[in-house]
Design a protein that fits this description.
Layout lengths: L6 E4 L2 E3 L7 E2 L1 E5 L2 E6 L1 H7 L5 E4 L4 E4 L1 E6 L1 H7 L3 E2 L8 H13 L7 E6 L12 H7 L5 E5 L4 E4 L1 H6 L13 E4 L5 E6 H9 L7 H16 L3 E9 L5 H13 L6 E7 H8 L12 E9 L29 H13 L4 E5 L2 H17 L8 E4 L5 H10 L2 E4 L2 H5 L1 H8 L2 H5 L4 H6 L5 E2 L10 H10 L16 H7 L2 H5 L18 E4 L16 E6 L2 E5 L2
Parallel strand pairs: 1-6, 2-7, 8-15, 9-10, 10-11, 15-16, 16-17, 17-18, 18-19, 19-20, 20-21
Antiparallel strand pairs: 1-4, 2-3, 4-5, 7-22, 11-12, 12-14, 13-14, 22-23, 23-24
The structure holds zinc ion.
Zinc ion (ZN) binds next to loops.
Length: about 550
């Protein structure tokens, strides 16, 4: 067999994300690993003379970007669905029109799915109703996800198929929204209520899932992403099919992104009962954390807050799991050696999660558990200190500052609370390891945009939200690289440009450390490389 030649990349501005040396000009690649890292001369010396040489022409190179909370597989599924988001749709009739067009080409009784509807951005500023959706189709059942994922809308045909009627009780943790006479309006709140309809929708064939996953993965590569935590596999019924699709893609050599599978508790139960758990797997596909939810989202008014919502006086939202049950679940998974990732947006939900983790940790002081709080948006200074003491990693939903910041000020939280959202500055001061994420498809995946937002904290309308919580570009870059690797116990394997680590890297059009902070979002990805193989662009 002919051995692959070493490749050496010279004359670059390489940001290693290592403490020493933070900047070098060159590195080598041997197979799927980095070789020597250092000056042009050193790297030339340490690789064979016949190595292929690539001149980086002064361009900036960073480690491959690691997105620690998003839903790659759900995003892939949205590629097969109707886009109901705004600004793509301005009015309710735009949304209904799109669904009607789709219904025309869909067989009778076949389900139609859409995603991304946002009641606070659409011109009429209200939720969809079954009557709206009936105008699109009375024969096809219709299911539309809200942008938050925590709400969904169905038409009358879907309510009929799912047998959701006035007499149907609300499922635990969910709500069937009803009008004043008790008739369901078509709005289903939280996963357990959505499941009443979702269980009737057929899961796509694995071959179709694989195709759409590949499109989604290629899209992620365009933004420099080389590793992802897929945020809640098993949230919908397609969990086993998704894992199968990933596994088949890997064995066919077509999985070009490294997947850390965050799996919903119900599905994980059957996996860990047979002895498999966190960190089991390969370089491309690993079992990750067990996922729990302790509230919904602020913009859907389903986050659990300590103080009431600005636009709904007296209403605080609810935690999803009673404290005693959450304590028991966290203790069980903690003692089983699993990493836990718990969704909590509101300060009351964060506090509830911290209590559960602290109790489990006290009873069983397992070091290095790396449990994560996902979103963690209304964490207080005290929460940050408690996370640090208990070894908890917050992953902040930083894109909220841009996408919902103005509405957090005017509608949901008010200015004072909105300024404290995603307290990155406080987290850095406390020296607590953290990551940032897009929650794609809730917001578009684009780490450089998330870094721009962490550094500038500018809302869509151009206001700076929480100036003291801004962080440096270097801190934001670390959160997407070496700190991201830490979240999957892989900081020795990837996350920085260092000898023997996986050769995952990105070539950029500009240096994020020296461009004007407002221009970070405009930096282009010139090439994305995973394990030494180009998966996007050229060099
Ligand atoms: Zn999520």
């Amino acid at each position: 067999m002919r051995m692959l030649k070493d490749r050496i990349f010279l004359n670059g501005n390489v940001l290693t994300m290592e403490l020493q040396p933070p900047h070098v000009s060159a590195f080598g690649v041997v197979g799927d690993l980095f070789g020597a890292v250092g000056s042009d001369t050193d790297v030339r010396h340490l690789h064979p003379p016949d190595s292929d040489i690539i001149d980086l022409k002064g361009k900036t190179v960073i480690p491959g970007l690691i997105e620690t909370h998003n839903h790659l597989s759900d995003y892939a599924m949205t590629l097969m669905q109707i886009d109901c988001s705004t600004p793509v749709n301005r009015t309710l009739s735009d949304v209904v029109g799109r669904i009607r067009e789709k219904a025309k080409e869909t067989n009778r009784n076949e389900w139609i799915k859409g995603w991304g509807f946002d009641d606070t951005l659409i011109a009429e500023k209200r939720h969809l109703t079954r009557q709206d959706l009936d105008k699109a189709s009375s024969e096809n059942p219709v299911f539309i996800h809200h942008i938050s994922g925590h709400l969904a809308y169905v038409n009358s045909r879907a309510l009929q198929i799912a047998s959701i009627e006035s007499a149907t009780p609300d499922p635990e943790g969910g709500k069937i929204h009803r009008d004043e006479t008790g008739i369901p309006t078509g709005l289903l709140v939280e996963e357990s209520a959505q499941a009443l309809a979702l269980k009737h929708i057929p899961v796509p064939a694995i071959s179709d899932i694989k195709k759409t996953l590949q499109h989604a993965i290629n899209h992620y590569h365009q933004y420099g992403i080389t590793s992802v935590h897929d945020g809640s596999i098993g949230y919908y019924r397609d969990g086993p099919e998704l894992l199968t699709a990933y596994r088949e893609l890997e064995s066919e050599g077509k999985l070009t992104i490294r997947i850390y599978a965050t799996i919903i508790a119900d599905l994980y139960e059957s996996i860990y009962r047979i002895g498999l758990g966190t960190r089991f797997g390969s370089k491309f596909l690993k079992l990750g954390s067990v996922k729990l939810f302790q509230d919904g989202s602020i913009q859907a008014l389903t986050a659990a807050l300590k103080n009431p919502y600005l636009n709904r006086p007296g209403f605080h939202g609810h935690v999803l799991i009673p404290q005693g049950t959450l304590n028991a679940l966290v203790k069980k998974y903690h003692e089983a050696g699993l990493q836990i990732a718990i969704h909590a947006n509101g300060d009351r939900a964060i506090e509830s999660v911290l209590e559960a983790i602290e109790k489990a940790y006290e009873a069983h002081p397992r070091q290095d558990h790396r449990h994560m709080i996902i979103h963690c948006q209304l964490a207080s200074q005290d929460h940050v200190r408690r996370m640090n003491r208990a070894g908890v990693i917050p992953s902040y939903f930083i894109n909220h500052i841009y996408y919902w910041g103005d509405r957090h000020i005017a509608e949901f939280l008010g200015r004072r609370r909105a300024q404290t959202l995603d307290p990155l500055g406080s987290t850095v001061k406390e020296n607590l390891l953290f990551t940032l994420h897009s929650d794609c498809p809730v917001t578009p995946v684009n780490p450089l945009f998330s870094i721009y937002t962490a550094v500038n904290r500018i809302t869509r309308k151009g206001e700076v939200l929480g100036e003291t919580e801004r962080i440096s570009v270097d801190q934001a870059l670390k959160s997407f690289t070496i700190q991201g690797a830490y979240c999957s116990f892989e900081e020795r394997l990837k996350g920085s440009i260092a000898p023997q680590k996986l050769a995952d890297f990105v070539i950029l059009s500009d240096n994020p450390l020296t461009v004007h902070p407002s221009a970070i979002k405009d930096i282009r990805i010139e090439a994305t490389v995973v394990g030494g193989r180009i998966v996007y662009g050229t060099y």
